[in-house]
Write a structure and sequence with these properties.
142 residues, four-stranded mixed sheet, alpha/beta, Diaminopimelate Epimerase, Chain A, domain 1
Length: 142
């Protein structure tokens, strides 16, 4: 698979919106066709490129999916990472990986987003004055 269809991207964007409905935090999904560098380095660059480090409480989470490499990474900013720790990110990864292995990328992304959203809502509940700081749309990068 070299890309996600528009229908798949819409479903993932809906999952992001649902996850963000009870939190002040932001979730962003970025899809790459391939990655020629370490996925962590690429994630860090994309996190800054998409201004995810500028959220009010430093609580954005990016899910990076690299299709050709068959890699993915869940990358959280310092505000959320300090509260959930490394074990949480591993559990999200394992949940997503199990579904990816069954061949359903979209469902794997949606499950990962839901897991992240639950923790974000626990630690960063949505306030009455909350604004959506980052678009919910899936981004395709080359």
């Amino acid at each position: 698979m070299h890309t996600l269809s528009q229908q798949q991207m819409n479903r993932v964007a809906e999952a992001v919106a649902a996850a963000e409905s009870s939190t002040s935090a932001e979730v962003k999904v970025v899809v790459l066709r391939h990655c020629w560098v370490d996925i962590r380095e690429k994630a860090k660059r994309l996190f800054y490129k998409h201004q995810l480090h500028r959220t009010k409480d430093r609580n954005a989470v990016m899910i990076l999916l690299v299709l050709a490499n068959r890699e993915f990474l869940v990358y959280g900013d310092q505000g959320i990472h300090q509260r959930v720790g490394e074990e949480f990110w591993g559990s999200v990864r394992d949940t997503m990986l199990e579904t990816f292995r069954s061949g359903d990328l979209t469902e794997g992304l949606c499950k990962g987003i839901a897991c992240v959203g639950e923790q974000l809502a626990r630690h960063f509940p949505r306030g009455d004055d909350d604004v959506n700081e980052i678009s919910d749309e899936v981004v395709h990068e080359d």
